[in-house]
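Chapter review: from sequence to fold.
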Amino acid sequence: MSWVARTASKSLLLLAIGMLFGACRPEIPLVNLGIDDAYAVPRMKALVLHPQYPGSRYIWTTPDNTGRDSVVSEERDLVFFSADTGTFHYRLQIEDPENPYTHEVKIVVWEEEVAYSPYIARVYEYCPAPGQFVNLMPVYEKGDTYASMCRKAEQSISGTNNTLISLGAYGGYVTFGFDHSVMNVEGEYDFRIYGNAFYASSGAAQGSSSEPGIVAVSLDRNQNGLPDDEWFELAGSEYFKPETVHHYEIVYTRSENAEIRYTDNLGGAGSIPQNTFHTQDYFPQWVKETSLRFGGTKLADNFRPEGDRYAFFPYDWGYADNHPNEEAEKSSFKIEWAVDANGKPVYLPCIDFVRVYTGVNQVCGMLGETSTEISKAE
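The token string follows.
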């Protein structure tokens, strides 16, 4: 037997004896925490620290001005976000009856190398429902794919570009983000979305062109740069009203004669009729499937027939393409309005993704379906 083998055998024997008599029980458990000791991140970028080590309670603290530890969170995950540069220190205490654990973390925040833009940087998803402006805003060209249509939507509404894209009938949506996380500033409006709504000459009270889109936000918790985490609706003025339908679902089906019919989870059915103003196929041409499914919150109809025309009445606040762009507060949004799927308020220190989808399911005679349009955000 070689010297290495004899030494290994002797070590294993001593380890077995020690374990038998309790001599080798470690005072500190071996922990796969999943969190490093130090991080360096640019400002205005969310950092999510997720401890892998299980415990009955998690307490995150940081030194206050007097040097004493101040509790900042008792959630398992710490969502760190800073608009300022500097060095930040945190202590994680994991309470566990058998193996409590403490871990120190240092986070250095540095100035970004290129100044951030206030405008949209990327469109992640463009998934319109059927509609009279679909395949036109942006224009579909033969050979276009889902990816190329996303890029066309991005070219339309990113940066200082200001070209409308249509989301089609109820449920159609676009998902976009900025080149930094958007901070939740208490009591303040955090971002703004532009559409093409307008008031009648006599004002909003007498009707207008309002095609309200519901806005939802998401934080990149899994830190993969994709909008695949939990979404939270921004509860606008209509969210808690009895006529608002939550957990609504609709399925649009394409047929050979280009007619588009839909059914919903309330037992309803109808169609998106083609009008004389727009005669192209209303079903997204880059979609190969014969049906499309959407879901979310459905707002009550906001139109009223007035003689031979329709008047659209804007909701009070909290929806895109609802009030004219000149109405700054009415076209702006607060992250603090966020609620979960059950309508419970949720605190998000910042968000990384914004989704807008058409919030009404209504067809208005010769004007066709109501479809949200947006042109940019900041």
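Two observations follow directly from the output. Helices lie at 3-20, 146-157. Confidence is low (pLDDT under 50) at residues 1-30.
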